[in-house]
Amino acid sequence: MDVFNSISEIRQSRWADPTLSWGLVPTMGYLHQGHLSLVQKARTENDRVMATIFVNPTQFAEGEDLSSYPRSLKRDLDLLKEAGCDVVFVPQDSEIYPDGFQTAVSVNVITKQLEGASRPTHFGGVATVVTKLFNIAQPTNAYFGQKDAQQTIVLKQLVEDLNFNLNLVICPTVREADGLAMSSRNAYLSKDERNQAHVLFQALTEGKNLILKGEKNAAEVRHLMKKLIEQQPLAKIDYVSVANGRSLEELETIEDGEVLLSTAVYFGNTRLIDNIPLSL
Ligand code: AMP
Fold this sequence. Notes:
Elements: E1 2-4, H1 7-14, E2 22-27, H2 33-45, E3 48-53, H3 73-82, E4 87-89, H4 93-96, H5 114-118, H6 122-137, E5 141-145, H7 149-161, E6 167-171, H8 191-196, H9 199-212, H10 218-230, E7 235-244, E8 258-267, E9 270-279
Parallel strand pairs: 1-4, 2-3, 2-5, 3-4, 5-6
Antiparallel strand pairs: 7-8, 8-9
The structure holds adenosine monophosphate.
């Protein structure tokens, strides 16, 4: 497995044989089985697999956890090698954002709700760095997790609007035994917080079950999910959403089509997100 820090090395490796297909797996490192599931999927669908490890400063706002974001490069590289990755791109900030950098990519409508409402600068940073990674790696296929549901919708819009010549592949959320979605940020949780954090998936699952039983009133579903989350003393709700799965507009009435149940919950300073997509 090759580990490169520079864009020029990545380009050289990518184009050494132009007939090969490449799968790209962008990450911020501190890898877990969720990330590795993307690498494993990419491994089955491409001649070569490239992962990136880059904690992208432009997607963090002032006061968020950029400086404390967990890092473990040596372990990450071992895991990527074991998962069958061919190339890892580990750039310094200055390789991605050199002095004088002044361009930003913004996706405008679908970024205003949910995560975008709580983190107004987040998706601009994501769209900019992913655009750069797509241009640097020029993958055949790019792999992202359903865990970040709104991100997948933003990136679909980006790929369509900017005519990127690649396929986006969205992979299912990988969970711990109690249902908690795997996340690098789970490492921040105290023992008590960790024990209560399964409530996100529990609430989403109960919300899903209520809808599958025939509930059409979205407010009832949101109410049930909120009630369950509030039963955990350390949980502080940011949002609980029952939205149209394409536009992300909050629903009043649940109708057939794509529905996204999602939530963001604080445990202390740690902000966890999770979602369940439904096709009705
Ligand atoms: P991150 O390192 O948090 O930026 O995540 C990198 C990629 O891994 C993103 O596409 C995430 O959606 C995906 N990912 C993170 N956690 C999970 C998970 N539990 N299951 C599946 N994919 C995940």
